[in-house]
C-alpha cells in the first residue's frame, strides 16, 4: 500500500509549487480511490474513504445495511455477521466493514494516486494559463519561435508559456527561424481545453485591426475608428475607417507620412497590400468607396444582394485577380455582391440606375473624373498646411500679448 509519509510530502509539494489547496488534492484522491474500488470490485458498492492528514494513512470501509435475509452482499450484511463486528448491531443499522487491500488492488491504488496527482497538476497549469492570458484575448503579443511539432506547426513561447501557431493560421505558409520574435493575435483563451489553451493567428482580420491600433496613435486614442476589415492574408486587404474629429483625415492618419505607418504594418503581414477606405452609414456611398479606384455606374439592391455595374474597361479591376477584390468588398459589406460590365447589363436588360459616381457621358466617352485618392504628396501638403495654421495662431497670440502690454 502507499507510504503515508511519502503521500503527505507529495501533497505538500503540489500545494506549494502548483498552488493547489490541500483540501482539493485530498478530495481528488478520495474520488479517484472510489473509482478504483468500483472498477476493481463493484460499481454498486458504497464505500467510505478516510485519509489521515497527520500520518497519510488511507483507510477504506464498505457501507453495509444490517438485514435478516441477505439479498446483495455488496450492500447488505446479516445480523449475525454484523454482531461479530458490533455486538449491539440491530436490523436496519449501518455497519462499516474495513476493506482489506489485496496486492493487486494495492497496485491499482498506487497507480490511481499517481494519475490523480498528474491530473491535479494539469488542472492547476490550465488554470494558471487561463488566468495569465484571458486578459490578453483579442490582443497582439510578441512570441518567440522555439521549434516545430510533428505536424509542422510552429511551437511558440509567449511569456514562458507554450502555444502553437498552426500552419493554417500563418500567412501563405510563411517560414520563421528558431528564436525569431514574431507578432501573433490571441483569438481565444480556453479554460478547459486539454490541447492548446491559447488559440493564436496571423490571418485573422482582427490581427490587422490591432496592428493598426498599435501603429496609429489616432486609432489608439479613438479619434480614428476602424469600422470593418476584410482580408485575403498575405495578398490584399481592405480597411474601412471613420474619423471622430473633422480636422483629422482618417485615411491619411493611417497611411502616415510617406506611407511609413501602413508600410510597417504591411511588412509584418509579409507585404500584404492594404487599401484604406472611408466607411459611410449610407450603404451605397460605402460601396462606392469600397470599389475605389473603380468607377461605379449602378448599384441595385435585390433582396440581400447587390448588383453592381461598372465600366467595361474596369471590370477585371473590380473583380480582381482570382476574384479577390470582389471578395474583399463583399467581406467589408458583409453581403453578397454581383459585378457586371456595362455592356453585359445592357445586353441582359438589367436596371441601370446611374446612382454610382460616374455619368452616362463619362462611360460612353470612356473619360472619367478620377476618384479622390490620398497620395504621399497630398499628405505632405496637408501637414504643411496644418503647420502653417499653427504658426499663424502662435503669431496671433504674440500680437495680442504685445497689444495688451502696450495698453
Automatic annotation (TrEMBL):
Cross-referenced Pfam families: KH_NusA_1st, KH_NusA_2nd, NusA_N
Residues annotated as domain S1 motif: 136-203
Cited CDD domains: KH-II_NusA_rpt1, S1_NusA
Gene Ontology CC entries for this record: cytosol
SMART domains membership: S1
Coarse class of the protein's main subcellular location: cytoplasm
Gene Ontology terms for molecular function: DNA-binding transcription factor activity; RNA binding
Location(s), subcellular: Cytoplasm
Keywords for this protein: Cytoplasm, RNA-binding, Transcription, Transcription antitermination, Transcription regulation, Transcription termination
Assembly information from the UniProt record: Monomer. Binds directly to the core enzyme of the DNA-dependent RNA polymerase and to nascent RNA.
Family listed: Belongs to the NusA family.
Function: Participates in both transcription termination and antitermination.
Name of the protein described by the UniProt record: Transcription termination/antitermination protein NusA
Native species: Mycoplasma feriruminatoris
Lineage: Bacteria, Bacillati, Mycoplasmatota, Mollicutes, Mycoplasmataceae
Gene: nusA
Amino acid at each position: 500500500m502507499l507510504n503515508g509519509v511519502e503521500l503527505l510530502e507529495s501533497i505538500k509539494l503540489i500545494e506549494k509549487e502548483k498552488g493547489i489547496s490541500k483540501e482539493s488534492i485530498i478530495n481528488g484522491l478520495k474520488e479517484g480511490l472510489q473509482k478504483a474500488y468500483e472498477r476493481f470490485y463493484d460499481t454498486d458498492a458504497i464505500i467510505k474513504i478516510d485519509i489521515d492528514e497527520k500520518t497519510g494513512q488511507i483507510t477504506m470501509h464498505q457501507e453495509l445495511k444490517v438485514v435478516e435475509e441477505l439479498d446483495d452482499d455488496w450492500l447488505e450484511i446479516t445480523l449475525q455477521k454484523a454482531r461479530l463486528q458490533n455486538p449491539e448491531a440491530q436490523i436496519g443499522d449501518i455497519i462499516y466493514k474495513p476493506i482489506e487491500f489485496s496486492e493487486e488492488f494495492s497496485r491499482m491504488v498506487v497507480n490511481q494516486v499517481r494519475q490523480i496527482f498528474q491530473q491535479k497538476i494539469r488542472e492547476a497549469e490550465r488554470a494558471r494559463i487561463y488566468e495569465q492570458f484571458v486578459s490578453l484575448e483579442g490582443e497582439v503579443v510578441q512570441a518567440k519561435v522555439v521549434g516545430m511539432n510533428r505536424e509542422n506547426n510552429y511551437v511558440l513561447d509567449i511569456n514562458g508559456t507554450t502555444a502553437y501557431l498552426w500552419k493554417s493560421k500563418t500567412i501563405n505558409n510563411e517560414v520563421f527561424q528558431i528564436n525569431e520574435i514574431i507578432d501573433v493575435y490571441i483569438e481565444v483563451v480556453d479554460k478547459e481545453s486539454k490541447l492548446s489553451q491559447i488559440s493564436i493567428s496571423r490571418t485573422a482580420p482582427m490581427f490587422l485591426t490591432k496592428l493598426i491600433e498599435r501603429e496609429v496613435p489616432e486609432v489608439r486614442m479613438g479619434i480614428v475608428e476602424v469600422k470593418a476589415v476584410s482580408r485575403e492574408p498575405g495578398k490584399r486587404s481592405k480597411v474601412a475607417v471613420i474619423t471622430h474629429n473633422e480636422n483629422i483625415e482618417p485615411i491619411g492618419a493611417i497611411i502616415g507620412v510617406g506611407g511609413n505607418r501602413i508600410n510597417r504594418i504591411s511588412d509584418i503581414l509579409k507585404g500584404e497590400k492594404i487599401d484604406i477606405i472611408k466607411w459611410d452609414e449610407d450603404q451605397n456611398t460605402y460601396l462606392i468607396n469600397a470599389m475605389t479606384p473603380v468607377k461605379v455606374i449602378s448599384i441595385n439592391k435585390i433582396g440581400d444582394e447587390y448588383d453592381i455595374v461598372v465600366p467595361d474597361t474596369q471590370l477585371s479591376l473590380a473583380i480582381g485577380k482570382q476574384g479577390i477584390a470582389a471578395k474583399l468588398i463583399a467581406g467589408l459589406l458583409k453581403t453578397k455582391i454581383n459585378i457586371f460590365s456595362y455592356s453585359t447589363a445592357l445586353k441582359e436588360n438589367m436596371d441601370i440606375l446611374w446612382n454610382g459616381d460616374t455619368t452616362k457621358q463619362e462611360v460612353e466617352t470612356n473619360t472619367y473624373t478620377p476618384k479622390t485618392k490620398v497620395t504621399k504628396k497630398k499628405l505632405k501638403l496637408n501637414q504643411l498646411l496644418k503647420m502653417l495654421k499653427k504658426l499663424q495662431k502662435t503669431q496671433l497670440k504674440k500680437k495680442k500679448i504685445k497689444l495688451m502690454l502696450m495698453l
